[in-house]
Each structure stands twice: as structure tokens, then as C-alpha cells.
């Protein structure tokens, strides 16, 4: 099935290349999830999981589903209790694809589910139609227009490189 996010094959290859970076420790979104959800027995989706996804501990009774437009393109089925979106929105090429991606994530979330999502300060690939780089404040407004509650996680990230928890 095709992704609801409209990217050309070249753009998909470009976002896929961003997952080749090596981290010294698990990225912030995964750490934020692990520290705030001690045990999850529901369905967890690692959205934009990258080429070698390794960061989510799996508990008894929990189903972990991986989805990546470049590396794991099979569309996730059903809805999820938790959706992790780590270092994804910042690698998209334009505002249209960010809007579509956030809409896709909202559609995959259960009514009482949680989204853990960040917007790192580097790299920032996306451009608004006027050519300016998409900023964290623009992303925060978009999240607030999409979800009922958007909480900035003060202990994770920084003002310009935030981590959010969103609920419907
Ligand atoms: C920088 S990597 C992050 C990988 C992993 N989540 C991490 O934090 O290490 C970004 C990944 O997001 C994927 N991606 C970007 N936009 C996506 C979308 N709209 N749907 C699914 N995957 C997407 C890319 O293919 C890429 O593998």
C-alpha cells in the first residue's frame, strides 16, 4: 500500500539516508518513552524507525510494530497506544510532507493513545513555501492544531530542539 505522505522516490531515498548516522546512546524520544512508560502492554509503533531499529524494549503483552517509508514500507495496520516519532519530522523536505506525516500519525493513534515526537535543531531539511527553514515553533503550532494536548518535556531536549508528548 502507498504511503499517504507524498514524496518522490528521490526524496524517499534522501530521508532514508538520514538514518545512517550512528548514536552514542539511544536518541531522546526513545529515552523519554522508556523513562515515562515503565510498562506498556499495548501496541507501540516506531514511526520512521530507520534502517537498524534497536531502541525500543519489548515487554510481555506488548506488540512493537516498525514502519519506515524507506526501509520498512509496509503500512501499519490498525491503531496504536503509543507512537514514537524520533528524528523524523526534521528530515522531511517541505511543510506539505510534515503536515501529511503528522496527519498520518494522528490517524494511527488510538483515542487514548500517546505520541512521543521531537524536532531536533540539526539537521533541519524542511522548507516552507517561501524558502525559509521550518522551525520548532511552526511544528509546535501544527501539533497543537492536530492533537488535543501537547506537552513539552522539559527534561528532554531544549527550547529549540524540543521533545513533545501529544494526546488526542
Ligand atoms: C534520522 S532517521 C531516524 C531513525 C530512528 N527513528 C532514530 O531516531 O534513530 C529518519 C527516518 O525516518 C524515515 N521517515 C521519514 N519520513 C517518514 C514518513 N513520512 N513515514 C515513515 N518514515 C519516514 C526515514 O526513512 C528515515 O529512516
Explain how this protein is built.
By secondary structure, the protein is of the alpha/beta class. The protein is built from 4 helices and 6 strands. The protein has helices spanning 9-17, 28-36, 95-108, 136-146; strands spanning 43-47, 63-67, 80-85, 109-118, 149-157, 162-167. Helix 3 runs parallel beside helix 4 (136-146). The two termini are 26 Å apart. Bound molecules: S-adenosylmethionine (SAM). S-adenosylmethionine is lined by residues 5, 15-16, 18-19, 27, 47-50, 67-71, 86-88, 91-92, 101. Residues 5, 15-16, 18-19, 27, 47-50, 67-71, 86-88, 91-92, 101 line the site of S-adenosylmethionine.
Quick recap:
This protein is an alpha/beta fold. The chain is 26% helix and 24% strand.
Describe this protein with a few key phrases.
168 residues; alpha/beta; Rossmann fold; 4 helices; 24% strand; binds S-adenosylmethionine
Amino acid at each position: 500500500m502507498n504511503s499517504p505522505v507524498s514524496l518522490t522516490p528521490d526524496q524517499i531515498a534522501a530521508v532514508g539516508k538520514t538514518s545512517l548516522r550512528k548514536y552514542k546512546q539511544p536518541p531522546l524520544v526513545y529515552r523519554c518513552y522508556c523513562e515515562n512508560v515503565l510498562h506498556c502492554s499495548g501496541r507501540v509503533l516506531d514511526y520512521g524507525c530507520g534502517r537498524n531499529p534497536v531502541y525500543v524494549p519489548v515487554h510481555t503483552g506488548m506488540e512493537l510494530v516498525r514502519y519506515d517509508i524507506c526501509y520498512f514500507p509496509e503500512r501499519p495496520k490498525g491503531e496504536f497506544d503509543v507512537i514514537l516519532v524520533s528524528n523524523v519530522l526534521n528530515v522531511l523536505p517541505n511543510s506539505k510532507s510534515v503536515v501529511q506525516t503528522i496527519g498520518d500519525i494522528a490517524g494511527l493513534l488510538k483515542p487514548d493513545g500517546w505520541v512521543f515526537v521531537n524536532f531536533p535543531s540539526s539537521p533541519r531539511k524542511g522548507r516552507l513555501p517561501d524558502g525559509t527553514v521550518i522551525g520548532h515553533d511552526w511544528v509546535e503550532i501544527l501539533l497543537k492544531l492536530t492533537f488535543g494536548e501537547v506537552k513539552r518535556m522539559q527534561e528532554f531536549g531544549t527550547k529549540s530542539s524540543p521533545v513533545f508528548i501529544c494526546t488526542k
